[in-house]
Amino acid sequence: MRLEIDEVGVRIGDAVLLDAVSLAPRPGRVTGVLGPNGCGKTTLLSVVGGVRRPTSGQVRLDGEDLHAMRGRRRARTLALLEQEASTTLPLTAREVVATGRIPHRSLLAPADREGGAVISAALATVDATQLTDRLWTSLSGGERQRVHLARALAQEPSVLLLDEPTNHLDLAHQLTFLERVRELGLTTLVSLHDLNLAAAFCDDVVVLRAGRVRGLGPVEEVLTADLVREVYDVEVTVEPHPRREHPVIRWDGPVTA
Ligand SMILES: Nc1ncnc2c1ncn2[C@@H]1O[C@H](COP(=O)(O)OP(=O)(O)OP(=O)(O)O)[C@@H](O)[C@H]1O
Questions:
Q1: Ligand 1 neighbourhood includes 111 CB (under 6 angstroms)
Q2: H-type helices in 103-189, by residue range?
Q3: Domain ABC transporter: where (predicted)?
Q4: Does residue 19 form part of some domain?
Q5: Are 186 and 158 in contact (CB under 8 A)?
Q6: Segment 85-109 mean pLDDT
Q7: What is the number of structural domains in the chain?
Q8: DSSP states along 25-53
Q9: Does residue 245 sit within a domain?
Q10: Using a 6 Å cutoff on CB, does residue 88 contact ligand 1?
């Protein structure tokens, strides 16, 4: 599935949240959405997820305007894992994941025959089979995060949009979570604050600052010390990882004038 983000702009009154952002994430690859607080990462993901309309530009899926597609069809193609998604309904983890199947049901085909198996597989993928019958409200932040990923997977999307999915996870779960996401082989856009996680798990990155693209391309080409200084105001050293095939970013401190 070909995803194209073409000159997307978002304005609210005088505020420019996104300014002519263009990128075409490589199909089946993981693209990191990076940048400091308030640079527009969540806004971009919500536009691509169809939750928010751009005020200019277009997002296309296989050439078709995403915002002109019907919601159900869009939801069968693309799943968005929002930053602080929550529910106060007394649902079990499995019932939460089952809501991901809603776009696959219709009046003509109310029974979702594969649904049960897809839900079980999604829970297993995120290591949450043991949480199946637990009440959502009783889960920890990291457990909720994994169950929400399972819900997104139950949608069987071609495009996966993840907004800071690792923010409640311990180190081991951050690594396994992103490894699994990579293994899914879906066209993935993932916003991350941790540059080392981005360096390790993303194929490409788009780096935003104040709503504009400041870097775009393969992670090892874009994540340079110069770019990090310019975008994050932090002095860093970028080196090859001694045992793995990706760079490591070591911070030396904030930029001093
Ligand atoms: N309704 C609004 N009116 C004006 N500005 C807004 C509005 N909503 C969001 N913004 C601003 O838009 C900018 C982009 O917000 P966004 O949530 O996309 O950033 P982000 O990169 O995801 O940030 P963070 O890393 O802190 O989560 C922020 O400066 C935010 O304050």
A1: no
A2: 115-125, 141-154, 171-184
A3: 3-235
A4: yes
A5: yes
A6: 80
A7: 1
A8: PPTTSEEEEE-STTSSHHHHHHHHTTSS-
A9: no
A10: no
Q: Which residues contact 251 (CB under 8 A, 6 or more apart)?
A: 234, 235, 236
14 lines ligand 1 (CB under 6 A): no
**CA of residue 10 to ligand 1 center, whole Å:** 11
Q: Which residue has the higher pLDDT, 108 or 133?
A: 133
Identity of the amino acid at 214: R
Q: Is the CB of 43 under 6 A from ligand 1?
A: yes
At 140-167, the pLDDT tens digits run: 988 988 899 999 999 999 999 999 998 8
Domain that residue 146 falls in: 3-222
CATH of the domain at 169: 3.40.50.300
CB 206 within 8 A of CB 40: no
CA of 191 to the centre of ligand 1 (A): 14
Q: How would DSSP label each residue in 121-146?
A: HHHHHTT-GGGTTSBGGGS-HHHHHH
Prediction ipTM score: 0.97
Q: Which pLDDT belongs to residue 61?
A: 95
Residue 249 lies in a domain: no
For residue 154, being part of any structural domain is answered with: yes
Question: Separation of 210 CA from ligand 1 center, angstroms?
Answer: 9
